[in-house]
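Quick one:
INPUT:
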């Protein structure tokens, strides 16, 4: 078990944590959530000891081992893959290295023999003889074969390094597992493997992630950072989000009778209690849910942007025809004889290949790049708006504030109108006067979405629209695209986003682009 007592931390003149008291118990997986800048990764570093808390204590049950997935992908460049994984159990790894050093001595003494025998006993007791095989099993589960074991970390790609570091973190069955954005750069098969691993994991897990599907699948509790405190709630992310909204609604409606509030609360809890039957802690979570009262539901200061797209002109029947599209970059074929037809009302996710292939396709469709061969034919009634993966070119000026930046894309030039649009995207008051060259990645994305919202386009092209966004903004974009009546062409690594927005899937690696999948889960073979 790991817990905190009166933890406090002030960073950059701002109080991140104030008398945080929270307990994380075995058998549970805690999703650590909070708005951007709330201190999620910082709190994991406090728990792991990577940074010092200014007041309070972190308490770990004596003898328990804590393991961490860190975001430093260049920490082990000269190490082999197998050694990097084994380092996850640092005590066992140090025994292995000391053993090897002793056996390599040219003047092996009786004292060395006694020490070696002692180490061999410890090694066997800690499961050392099975450790390398278990490490290779973890690696295989994440999609990397045994041929990777002797490679140096510097020889691996970014996504491959993530898999090795993840295997390092979970190696040796740690008692407490801290995971900071574990699904970043993972392919869908590796994510599914990790989900199944955590569902079977019997110890304590604390995870930070922007992947709502992942949080809903693996989490038994949500630990919410708000008001400088951290509060734990039973249930997954969807339960936390919907219960927070319900609590706010019931508390704000002061005139509603107590029995009506109780009835609504019981109906809500009953619905989520049924979902809890699928979790590994079904019985205990059911009991916890049954005991919930209104005062137990979360109170949140979270603000959600309002994302809403309206087409000024209804699209005709003919939307887009692509025929024989081929494109090579630096001698590498990215798109190969790609053909497909888009129909009115399609909401299509493009999968297969890699981000470069999808970005290249969208740049061609948006008219920003010419294909080597092939035809792109848009319908005469179609207007498009494009959200690029790299938006840096839109924010290079250093003499514009947000109001003047958005005004250049708007037919209505009046400041109250522009401020209203920005306010919906959480740039209210003085925030609307921010200079565009100081915006964060998430703020830039919200600006680009504002630009798209005032375009009135009937076809939206979005290349990774959830990148850099917090959970609240991802949810708002997700719901806005579900409501949109027009056509959407998009790419995303967000499972729930893909599942709930797309009504059609095109695999750009496949020559059979007319294959119809009803949902993203259908495409993945999960239905």
């Amino acid at each position: 078990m790991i817990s905190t007592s009166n933890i406090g931390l002030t960073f950059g003149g701002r109080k991140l944590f104030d008398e945080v008291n929270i307990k994380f118990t075995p058998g549970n997986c805690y999703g650590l959530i909070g708005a951007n800048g709330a201190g999620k990764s910082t709190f994991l570093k406090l728990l792991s000891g990577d940074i010092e808390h200014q007041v309070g204590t972190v308490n770990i049950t004596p003898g328990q081992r804590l393991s961490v997935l860190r975001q430093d992908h260049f920490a082990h460049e000269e190490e082999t893959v197998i050694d990097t994984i084994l380092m996850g159990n640092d005590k066992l790894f140090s025994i292995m290295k000391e053993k090897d050093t002793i056996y390599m001595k040219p003047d092996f003494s009786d004292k060395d023999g006694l020490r070696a025998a002692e180490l061999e006993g410890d090694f066997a007791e800690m499961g050392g003889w099975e450790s390398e095989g278990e490490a290779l099993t973890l690696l295989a589960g994440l999609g990397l074969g045994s041929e990777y074991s002797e490679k140096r970390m510097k020889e691996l790609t970014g996504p491959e390094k993530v898999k090795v570091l993840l295997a390092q973190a979970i190696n040796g069955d740690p008692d407490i597992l801290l995971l900071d954005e574990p699904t970043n750069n993972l392919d869908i098969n590796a994510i599914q493997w990790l989900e199944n691993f955590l569902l079977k994991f019997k110890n304590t897990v604390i995870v930070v992630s922007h992947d709502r599907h992942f949080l809903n699948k693996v989490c038994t509790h949500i630990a919410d950072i708000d008001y400088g405190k951290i509060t734990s709630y039973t249930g997954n992310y969807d339960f936390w989000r919907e219960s927070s909204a319900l609590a706010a609604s019931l508390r704000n409606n002061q005139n509603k009778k107590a029995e009506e509030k109780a009835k609504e609360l019981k109906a809500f809890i009953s619905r989520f209690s049924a979902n809890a039957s699928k979790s590994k802690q079904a019985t205990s979570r059911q009991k916890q849910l049954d005991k919930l009262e209104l005062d137990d539901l979360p109170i949140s200061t979270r603000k959600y942007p309002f994302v809403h797209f309206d087409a000024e002109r209804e699209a005709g029947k003919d939307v887009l025809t692509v025929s024989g599209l081929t494109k090579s970059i630096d001698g590498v074929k990215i798109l190969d004889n790609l053909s497909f037809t888009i129909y009115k009302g399609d909401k299509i996710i493009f999968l297969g290949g890699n981000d470069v292939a999808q970005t290249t396709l969208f740049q061609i469709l948006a008219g920003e790049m010419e294909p080597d061969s092939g035809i792109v034919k848009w319908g005469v009634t179609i207007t498009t708006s494009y959200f690029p993966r790299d938006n840096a070119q839109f924010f290079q000026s250093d003499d514009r504030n947000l109001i003047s930046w958005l005004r250049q894309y708007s037919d209505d030039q009046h400041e109250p109108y522009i401020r209203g649009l920005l306010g919906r995207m959480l740039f209210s008051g003085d925030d609307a006067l921010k200079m565009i060259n100081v915006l964060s990645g998430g703020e830039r994305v919200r600006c680009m979405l504002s630009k798209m919202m005032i375009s009135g386009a009937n076809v939206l092209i979005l290349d990774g629209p959830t990148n850099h966004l917090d959970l609240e903004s991802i949810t708002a974009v997700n719901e806005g695209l579900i409501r949109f009546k027009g056509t959407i062409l998009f790419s995303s690594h967000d499972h729930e986003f893909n599942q709930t927005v797309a009504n059609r899937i095109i695999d750009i690696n496949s020559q059979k682009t007319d294959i119809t999948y009803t949902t993203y889960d259908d495409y993945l073979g999960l239905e």
